[in-house]
Every structure is written in C-alpha cells, then in structure tokens.
Specification:
By secondary structure, the chain is mainly α. Helices cover 66% and strands 9% of the residues. It has one domain (21-174): Up-down Bundle (Growth Hormone, Chain: A). A two-stranded antiparallel sheet has the order 1-2. The longest helix is centred in the C-terminal third of the chain and has 27 residues, at 148-174. One of its GO terms (molecular function) is hormone activity.
C-alpha cells in the first residue's frame, strides 16, 4: 500500500541506509546485520556513559528470549504481532528512562535507541498478512529493571533474535 511504502522508505532513510527498495530490507541480510552491529554499538556506548542513574521507576521490559522450535511453528503474522508488542514495550521503557536520565551521554544514547526501536515499530505496523493493522493488547512476558543498560541489552537481544529470524522467514517468501 502507498502509506506502507512511504513508512518503509522513511524507515530506510531514517536508519541512514541508502536503499530505496522496500524488499531490500528483508532480502539483503546485510541490513539486519548492520542493525545488529548498531544495537551492539548503542549498548556498548551506553555502558561507557559515566554515572548513569538507577531508575527510580523501573523500566518494564519484554522478555525477548524464545525457543527457535516454537518460533518456527508460528505464522509470520503471529511473529509480527509478538515483535510489535515487544517493541511497543521497549519504546515505552525508553521514553520512561529518558525522563529520568539527564546526563548527556545517556540521554544521547536513549534518543538514538528510541529512533531505531520506534522505526522498527512503525515499519512492522505497515506489514500485514492475516489480521489487519496491529492493535495493542498483547500480553508478553515482562521483567522490571532499574538499570538503563538493561534497556539496550533487551533491544540488542530483540534485534539479534526475533527480528533477525523474522526477516529471515520473510525472505523465504519474498526473495525467491
């Protein structure tokens, strides 16, 4: 759909990748590897920030670990919904943490993380196979964390795990 293509193009431009083909995000596995490297870099840089505060209001984060066998048995739409739910929680945790972190280094990394996670959230909202547009209401497994770095760890694990495998699964259908 044209709005979906617009959001996807915006996503690709926002993520500082010079691609213009929407399918390239899924079909060129170098892109997901780029996002994994960026997630690791954000996590590392956040860990290097001096005097990051302990969050007075714990961040509610999704548990993003998964069983590959169970993952493979799910439809692409179910996988998308699960990742959307995880991303929505993660974006919310970043926003909450931003309100508590005033230190420049930490704030800069949180803003960067917000842009990346929110871009994936917007992108995946444009994909739809079975159930139509995403609507919040999922109930993922949750954890509460008071360390800012745990938000970056969760994002890296999500990109390295569910997102990478999701794009791999999509590529099987879209990149023949």
């Amino acid at each position: 759909s044209p709005p979906g293509l617009f959001l996807l193009t915006s996503f690709l431009l926002h993520m500082e990748e010079g691609c213009t083909s929407p399918i390239q995000l899924v079909c060129d596995n170098r892109l997901i590897h780029k996002y994994i490297v960026e997630a690791k870099d954000m996590e590392k840089r956040a860990g290097q920030c001096q005097a990051l505060p302990t969050l007075s209001c714990p961040a509610v984060l999704p548990l993003v670990d998964f069983s590959l066998q169970q993952w493979k048995s799910k439809s692409n739409e179910t996988k998308r919904q699960e990742i959307l739910c995880d991303l929505a929680l993660l974006v919310g945790a970043v926003v909450e943490a931003q309100g508590q972190v005033t230190q420049e280094c930490g704030d800069k990394q949180l803003r960067r993380l917000y842009r990346h996670a929110n871009s994936f959230l917007l992108l995946l909202q444009t994909f739809s196979w079975e159930a139509g547009p995403w609507e919040p209401g999922c109930s993922p497994r949750l954890m509460e964390q008071t360390h800012v770095t745990s938000i970056f760890l969760t994002y890296r694990q999500l990109v390295q795990g569910k997102l990478r495998f999701f794009f791999h699964d999509l590529a099987k259908d879209l990149c023949k």
